[in-house]
Amino acid sequence: MKTTPIEQLVASVHGTLYCGDSSTVVTSVSTDTRTIGAGSAFFALKGENFDAHDFLEKAVAAGAAAIVVERVPEGVDFGSAAIVVVQDSLTALQSFAAWYIRQLDVEVVGITGSNGKTSTKDFTRAVLGERFKVHSTKGNLNNHIGLPLSVLSAEEDDEVCVFEMGMNHPGEIAPLCQIAKPRIGIITNIGTAHIEYMGSREAIAEEKGALARSLPADGVLVVSAACDYADYFRDHTRARIMVVGNGRGEIRAEELKMDSSGSEFMLVADGEDAIRVKLPVVGRHMVANALLAAGVGRTLGMNIQEIATGLNRASLTSGRLRFFESGGVTIFDDTYNANPESMKAAIETLAELKVSGSAHRYVVLGKMGELGVHVADAYREVGSLAAERGISVLSFGDDARGISSAAAERGADAVHFNTIDAAADWLQSTCASGDAVLFKGSRAAAMERVMDKAFPTNN
């Protein structure tokens, strides 16, 4: 974070300096007393089950230079810390981030969509890193609290900031755009993630479209040629639309080949010679995400050689279709999260993977969250697709039983287990050298526990 005097913090959050030296500077921001360091500004947030105002003494002891509060508790010794009083601590955090990003000379890229935000962010960071100093979202800091923290961790010499923008309820993307003010946007796709709260894909497109609507007239929105809402976004943005995709678009992938080690294709951009790319991850959907990143690189003046080099060097966040081998079995770890579209994409990826004639493909699937009344249909579609593609199914956890039931009804080999030990034992006794196994489920399903138990060489 760029060093910031407390007097500027106070002004940006429309607060009042209760006590302390206004010339003191802050060098980082935290909302968790466990991550405070000397020079931090601590924002005391309140949630349904916690109130950080109860832990202000811990913030002082940890070395906070400034503490932003809604009220000043009695009996707390604040020492030399500056105390800033505001009406709402969360609003203050967001206001500080909105002010801060405007102090930096950076291009801002915003990424939203139902699937693939993090892998697209990883690809974008890798591409842009070939020419620019890039700051990007860490972990899952992409919501109304996480995005401001991501913004406030940018450094003064960063040249491009790449921010994920997540949501699960209406009205959440527009405020994130107001904070970060991206000039370049990516909408990865429109699926059914969070449909329990959104109601329909149309409503999801409307919400994700807030990014398109926020872009300035000199901005660029990069979308996939496969997105069936591309024309909708074109009609709801002032920015130029760049369409990219497998086999079509301004930037495209041709001659795609996949094996267990990754995806290889010719990267084609209008006006330049094609160049071969080898992504360290399998899947047509991953290639689509890489092309979105390539579109951003192209927008910022990068040539196709730089873009290809960045993609070749890309490293994805853990749990996103990385692969490893255990006892001759190829394991695909896609455990980070899941929704119907990403599960189907993973199944299609596994189906395309070449295995020896006697080998088998298995998917080990856990529950998907936030589907509401659509959950039964979603599980039926996923299980049926696996059966159609000749893939054996193991569902894990009682909530996911509908997946294996649907697969079995369509004639697939399908089993269900409710305990880690039972699922792991079945996999160890069933899988043989040459087989391929893919693990996927929502974060709450913690599918990595089954994976690590069944194939412990990953530890």
From TrEMBL:
Q: Known catalysed reaction(s)?
A: D-alanyl-D-alanine + UDP-N-acetyl-alpha-D-muramoyl-L-alanyl-gamma-D-glutamyl-meso-2,6-diaminopimelate + ATP = UDP-N-acetyl-alpha-D-muramoyl-L-alanyl-gamma-D-glutamyl-meso-2,6-diaminopimeloyl-D-alanyl-D-alanine + ADP + phosphate + H(+)
| EC number in record | 6.3.2.10
| Record keywords | ATP-binding, Cell cycle, Cell division, Cell shape, Cell wall biogenesis/degradation, Cytoplasm, Ligase, Nucleotide-binding, Peptidoglycan synthesis
Q: Does the keyword Cell division apply?
A: yes
Where found in the cell? Answer: Cytoplasm
Ranges for domain Mur ligase central come to 111-296
What Gene3D superfamilies does the database record attribute to this sequence? Mur ligase, C-terminal domain, Mur-like, catalytic domain, MurE/MurF, N-terminal domain
Its pathway is: Cell wall biogenesis; peptidoglycan biosynthesis
Q: What does this protein do?
A: Involved in cell wall formation. Catalyzes the final step in the synthesis of UDP-N-acetylmuramoyl-pentapeptide, the precursor of murein.
What is this protein identified as?
UDP-N-acetylmuramoyl-tripeptide--D-alanyl-D-alanine ligase
Q: What is the lineage of its organism?
A: Bacteria, Pseudomonadati, Verrucomicrobiota, Verrucomicrobiia, Verrucomicrobiales
